[in-house]
Structure formats: structure tokens, C-alpha cells
Predict the 3D structure of the following.
Amino acid sequence: MQSTTLSIGDPIEARCTKCRKNTDHIIITIAEEAPVKVQCNACSRQHKYRPPTVAKKPAVRQAAKPKDADRKEWELLQPTMDSSKAKTYSMTESYKLNALINHPTFGLGIVQRIVGSQKVEILFEDGKKIMRCQ
Ligand SMILES: [Zn+2]
């Protein structure tokens, strides 16, 4: 088996622009051990060799990822959250790091970051949110 050396007439997988997919081709011409011209077995078209395209991975929903991470983090911290100690969220309160918050909409959260003046980042089950505070 000469697997590394290509010869004219060898079958090769290539991209066919007419078939619009990777098809089996036969090598017609070779230069410097690389196929130059190939003929498509499916449509018999002769064309320049194009390497077969790699199937694209299904698009990863990038936007969902950080939220999933937030959710996991929240689930990890959730057992440590004592809802009886949570303060009801209010814009007029001031919050310290790791303070427990009970938000009417987002539920239990934990202050994770002081964001400049009068803003804190709170991790809720729904994800991290920047909230106003005093
Ligand atoms: Zn073709």
C-alpha cells in the first residue's frame, strides 16, 4: 500500500463545487505529489483539486454558556444560602460582599462583587445581575 504517494488515477476525496459537497474523485494531474486536477466520480466534472471541507460543528450557543455557568455556581452556593437570613432587595439598602439577597423577581441571590459606587453584582439562579444599591 502506497498511502503517502499519490498517482494519477487514484481515488481521492475532494470538494466538488458542482455537487456542492465532498465526493470521490479520481486524480487527473499531480504536481509535487499533490493532486492538481481531479475528476468527480459523481458528476464527471474535471476541476482543480480542493481539499474536502470539514463538517462544521453545530453552532455552539455562546450566549447560553455564561448563564449555564452562573446557574451551576448558584446551585453550588444554594445549600449555603440561609433564606431566613436573606435581606429583601431594596435599592436604598447597602450591601456587603457575600450578603444574601431575597429579590421579589429573581429569588435568592448572593452579592459577589461591588461594582463601583451604588452597584453590586448579585448571583441569582437566573444568572448574574448588576443591581443598584446605596
Ligand atoms: Zn461533482
Summary: Strands lie at 11-16, 21-31, 34-40, 46-48, 87-88, 100-103, 107-114, 119-124, 127-132. The chain has a mean pLDDT of 89.
